Recover the amino acids of this structure.
């Protein structure tokens, strides 16, 4: 059986909020892991919540629409999430340098944010080097050896004007030892800078994670099944991916066939794993890479949601030259033997299986044999089929119910959408025992359904906690612009909201009895490094 989301000696029922780091309030145009993140943990504790669910923490790139699911590293942290305020407290930045205005409270403006953030990190690096504290970076590298490849990768990206690694000179592209050694020497200063940035991220993250533990809040992280083609993972571990040996470009790529979200499917473009390679060395390398990745995720977070879990049962393989995901084929994944091997190596793992989309009995069997909770999405429930698995009366206990995910419209946005039929709205209202057509209260109807269900865990996106419309949607699958931008202004995260949420959480027996009632985060304290 998989590890339960809550400790064995605690009540099974719990509740949480989905709010990505970038959506937190801050004066710097994007949320970060500084004071507002600590304050949000206080809010969760006051509201009786058990979980804070976030999106992947890796670096993002404008070339991929700033999607956290298309990162250049499966292990690195996003530099945009580093808190300037915490750097100022460590005298790496000055107050005048972090005083800023003009950023939107409501949307991330990625180009401006990236420019501002990079200038601050370069300043911090100058001051750090003047202190001659290289031993701190050396200790960090010893603990995180992956950072050497990552820092070299970014330094080479800068040298080659951000061109993808598979277009680099052949000696570097295929990592010939002499070429790598020469580049490492020549790019030493830039490599050290990127190592420093990761040192800052992980030092601040560990402080935040420790504070969450002290307050009784468990962080649910997100692990994409695939990695980006133009990533340090693929560059360093080319033999475990389905690549052309002469060019490094993919033979086939990942995606999903036409579904609820897209009539032409979703063509993700990630390289596929060589799950069925004949060479035992390839399998050893592939499983070792996954072991390292899972261990890192389970160290950083308390629970990990594996995105596209069904890909471990079977995955959609699309020829690399296709323009849509329509002309793909299903191929058999590694199945239960993979997870048994990971459990043998890592012990029981607290995992949520993202089992949405085209789900077969084989996928359900894999999930259930492992004992991992699956996901239930209320906005998928109201098609008129009383056997619909997303209807609360069809749930089993071992699942996590959401009003919607980061890929859905908000609850109110869905209700008001012209694509939502009147009879569908009526069914949704009736499910919550409401005989009205009030859109403004629909998010509360969905919160009621989620919390009152038998599902062990209920997680509500912050937009639905607040009853916001579709202008606050996080992501629209199949579109490349305008996503991953929504932010929650500080004035919406109130004590009154915590009281309201605490009330519904208590009423439906989801209260976290282990949230600490001690001191709240002090923004003047010396925290984060």
């Amino acid at each position: 059986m998989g590890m339960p989301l809550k400790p064995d000696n605690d009540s099974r029922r719990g509740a949480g909020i989905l709010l990505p780091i970038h959506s937190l309030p801050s004066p710097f145009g994007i949320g970060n892991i500084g004071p507002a993140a600590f304050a949000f943990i206080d809010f969760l504790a006051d509201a009786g919540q058990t979980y804070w669910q976030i999106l992947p923490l890796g670096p993002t790139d404008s070339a991929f629409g700033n999607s956290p699911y298309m990162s250049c590293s499966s292990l690195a942290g996003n530099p945009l999430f580093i808190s300037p305020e915490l750097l100022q407290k460590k005298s790496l930045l000055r107050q005048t340098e972090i005083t800023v205005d003009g950023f939107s409270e409501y949307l991330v403006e990625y180009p401006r944010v990236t420019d501002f953030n990079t200038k601050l990190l370069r300043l911090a690096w100058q001051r750090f080097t003047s202190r001659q504290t290289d031993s701190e970076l050396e200790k960090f590298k010893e603990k995180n050896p992956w950072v050497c490849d990552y820092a070299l990768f970014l330094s080479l990206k800068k040298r080659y004007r951000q061109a993808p690694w598979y277009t680099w000179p052949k000696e570097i592209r295929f990592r010939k030892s002499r070429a790598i050694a020469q580049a490492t020497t020549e790019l030493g200063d830039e490599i050290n800078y990127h190592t420093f940035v990761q040192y800052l991220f992980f030092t601040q993250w560990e402080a935040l994670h420790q504070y969450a533990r002290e307050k009784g809040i468990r962080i649910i992280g997100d692990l994409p099944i695939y990695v980006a083609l133009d990533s340090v993972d693929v560059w360093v571990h080319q033999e475990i991916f389905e690549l052309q040996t002469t060019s490094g470009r993919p033979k086939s790529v990942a995606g999903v066939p036409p579904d609820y979200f897209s009539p032409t499917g979703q063509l993700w473009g990630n390289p596929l794993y060589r799950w069925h390679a004949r060479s035992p060395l390839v399998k050893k390398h592939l499983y070792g890479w996954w072991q390292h990745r899972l261990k890192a995720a389970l160290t950083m977070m308390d629970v990990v949601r594996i995105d596209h879990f069904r890909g471990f049962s079977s995955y959609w393989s699309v020829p690399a030259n296709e323009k849509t995901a329509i002309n793909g084929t299903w191929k058999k994944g590694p199945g239960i033997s993979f997870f048994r091997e990971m459990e043998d190596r890592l012990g029981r793992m607290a995992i949520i299986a993202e089992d949405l989309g085209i789900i077969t009995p084989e996928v359900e069997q894999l999930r259930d044999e492992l004992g991992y909770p699956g996901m239930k999405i209320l906005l998928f429930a109201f098609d008129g089929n009383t056997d619909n698995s997303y209807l609360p009366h069809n749930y089993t206990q071992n699942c996590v119910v959401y009003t919607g995910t980061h890929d859905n419209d908000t609850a109110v946005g869905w209700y008001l959408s012209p694509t939502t039929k009147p009879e569908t709205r009526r069914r949704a209202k009736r499910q919550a025992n409401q005989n009205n057509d009030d859109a403004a209260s629909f998010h509360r109807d969905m919160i009621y359904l989620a919390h009152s269900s038998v599902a062990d865990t209920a997680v509500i996106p912050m937009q639905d906690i607040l009853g916001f419309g579709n202008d606050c949607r996080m992501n629209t699958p199949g579109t490349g612009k305008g996503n991953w931008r929504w932010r929650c202004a500080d004035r919406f995260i109130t004590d009154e909201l915590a009281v309201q949420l605490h009330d519904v959480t208590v009423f439906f027996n989801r209260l976290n009895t282990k949230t600490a009632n001690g001191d709240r985060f002090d923004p003047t304290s010396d925290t984060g490094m």
Notes: Residues 188-214 form the longest helix (27 residues). The mean pLDDT is 94. The two ends are 38 Å apart (CA to CA).
